[in-house]
Design brief:
homodimer, alpha/beta, Aspartate Aminotransferase, domain 2, Aspartate Aminotransferase, domain 1, 7-stranded mixed beta sheet, 4-stranded antiparallel beta sheet, 17 strands, globular
Amino acid sequence: MAAQPKDLSHHLSVESASRKQSPLKAVALSKSSRNIKIISLAGGLPNPEYFPIREMDAEIPAINSWKKDSSNSGKLDTVSVPMSSSDSDVLPLSVALQYGQGSGAALLSQFLKEHTRIIHNPPYEGWNIIMTTGNTSCLDIALRMLTNRGDSILVEKYSFPSALQSMRPLGLSCIPIDMDQFGFLPESMDDILTNWDATSYGSPKPHVLYTIPTGQNPTGSTLSVERRKQIYTLAQKHDIIILEDEPYYYLQMDAYEGKPEAADKAFTNEQFVKELIPSFLSMDVDGRVIRMDSLSKVVAPGSRVGWFTAQPLFIERGLRAAETATQSASGISQGILYAMFKHWGQDGYLEWLKHIRYSYTLRRNYLLYAMDTYLPKSVCSYIPPVAGMFIWFEVDKSRYIHADKNESIPEIESKIHAEAVEEGVNLACGNWFVVDPRVNDKIFFRVTFAHAELEEFNVAIERFAGVLKNNFKC
Amino acid sequence: MAAQPKDLSHHLSVESASRKQSPLKAVALSKSSRNIKIISLAGGLPNPEYFPIREMDAEIPAINSWKKDSSNSGKLDTVSVPMSSSDSDVLPLSVALQYGQGSGAALLSQFLKEHTRIIHNPPYEGWNIIMTTGNTSCLDIALRMLTNRGDSILVEKYSFPSALQSMRPLGLSCIPIDMDQFGFLPESMDDILTNWDATSYGSPKPHVLYTIPTGQNPTGSTLSVERRKQIYTLAQKHDIIILEDEPYYYLQMDAYEGKPEAADKAFTNEQFVKELIPSFLSMDVDGRVIRMDSLSKVVAPGSRVGWFTAQPLFIERGLRAAETATQSASGISQGILYAMFKHWGQDGYLEWLKHIRYSYTLRRNYLLYAMDTYLPKSVCSYIPPVAGMFIWFEVDKSRYIHADKNESIPEIESKIHAEAVEEGVNLACGNWFVVDPRVNDKIFFRVTFAHAELEEFNVAIERFAGVLKNNFKC
């Protein structure tokens, strides 16, 4: 039998610890002991007769319509969201368009919770999820729940700029953990925490780690199972809460084999789930992981529905925060998404995720092949990623032909970037992702295979190669 | 010619002043001086081919279908959101489902800005709007933009509990301004600010006022034009930023005439707009008003789309906050809403708002008539509201038959509430809305005419009258 999670309430921020429930939310559940329908004149909920959307429909791909050899190939199905329904497994507009609980509509929440159980099955009792208005909001809520102004937070040495922009205005110092090509180093994390000197850092020892373990942004690296276990053990040793930010989790891939093509692996849903790298959540016996899931990379960014999974303490405090920060995710989104998920079912959704996995594998292979073909090998180096949507590559600074100009790394990167844009290719500069600019001594660029058309990859990389050849001894 | 707004940057919080734009957002706009299409390998935007929603449709009421005497009476129209479109006035799914600007999709934003101009026409140059994930998020963003932990904020003596729950965990002291039946008192505001003693209050003089000017929650009161002008002048005198929270603005009504019916006034859109009480925004020559608008009461709470209107400084800082707090409103919501608004046009939307106005007037009249009929006049007193969805009424404490028990106001209200629920009617207790419990010496209840069916009003109020008669000398 699974154990109870640890009491980790000492991690709550002043803001979070002081949150209270609105009396109006609680009172909506009032019941009479008599057999009588309660007429509510309590909460200011508009009568659904004033909702001007009376039905919604969406065209979605039929299950396996994405497979060329399927009898459903190319087929679209229509799913409907009716105004009202007496079926308990329908989320009607009269509910979806109304004020809802901060945790999201029950039916969609149940679907996402069951999905989370299938994939991660957290090893303690009482875990739950809260739906949010997306991963961005998850992070804002989690940071405000756990940190006070003046705290420090552990992050990967290169990290997602918007996450850093969420942290710094809250008064947090971002402490970079060293990385190699396979993600961040447990030894570096242990070293920082073991030798923390609150006086010289000007803040108490960090108690929160923010990480993108799979297909990390920007480096594309994925932490191995062994590292994950070491890191979790370190989190226990140093009493750290792990914010596991996993938008790219389902974009896991087979190893790159040097070809601009990919096999559409005919594996079962069970095999697909089994091959996914174990998450921190799946090994979280203490309840010290807050996992943030997103639909942005696997359904659509515009859905603005994400969720976080955690132990009851963080769920309850997170719910109080969500109620006053965002109220709830869009009911229009939730209505359409639930209709789609219900139509597909858990298995149909896993089929879709396999399709996404295959599509990104193909895209990665195309982009890597273009890089292998066009980039000058004498100055560019990179590791083929096995997850995510990014390839991170170093450009050898020692071969820069204008070294006499004494430019900084950001200056060189900006100059190369401007020339690349002028030649018709946009990409991201390494310095945008550097947590501590004082220790930035290598030139990096990040390219993504998520967006451009496949036939554009060669053109884009050839253009960039030309820019490099003008600036580096190749 | 309208003037420039004042420089009010000294009002920004530490958090807000330190926000920076993500470099990735800026670089998406990179352009080449050559006549060349830029292939972007920069931002991690999924290719729209992976968005599983290929088209959305919604059934919405045809313009004036809500009028019994219209040729469109009862008619529904279908509006569609296609996957892609070359029309510049269509918001397609390929855009709506993608990552967007924090300010919202341009077309919907333009519609709401034009609507704001028609209604309020702010009297300075450069005002703008940002779409948010709803009014709740507007308030969270505004509070974090303007206040630091330890600050005080002016609020109405009775106020919206969720707003107070947004403020207090941020470390704000809520300073109640005295009210009468017509809203809060300018003299009380001036008195507090003129005599502010930072030492005894333990915080600097407030520089932010939070108010619900129209159909205030919970009191239903509406500030007169004269009071609004006085308050704006006081805001200038004491250098106050006004957070104008206006979810009930369009629920303005003619005076109650003692009848459970209402005339569906055949007035033009121009007359409708002209009769709306002037907002603080409409008199904001300095740019010191942040107006928060909501679709929750006039379209649907589940839309989770709101917007705030302010001068450029607050728009730019608010955008930086929205990007890291919520990213943007749901694109699925925005797609459906824009299709509806485009179909209706500005004039059609005003027709809809007149319908909402009429419907709420009818509901208010029904509920007031039920109250006039059933509530014991010797203990209950109330003022018919001219806006909003709430009626606030006092129950004379001096007639409480258990006065010897020495119960507090909240204890009496809770007891009455529990008995009411047991009898099958739910309503809200006055003490839930009290900002300073130390000065709570009157019994109040709040009822809403927004939700229940018209034929339930009599039953509900009769039940509550019975509870009062058991507890008060009537």
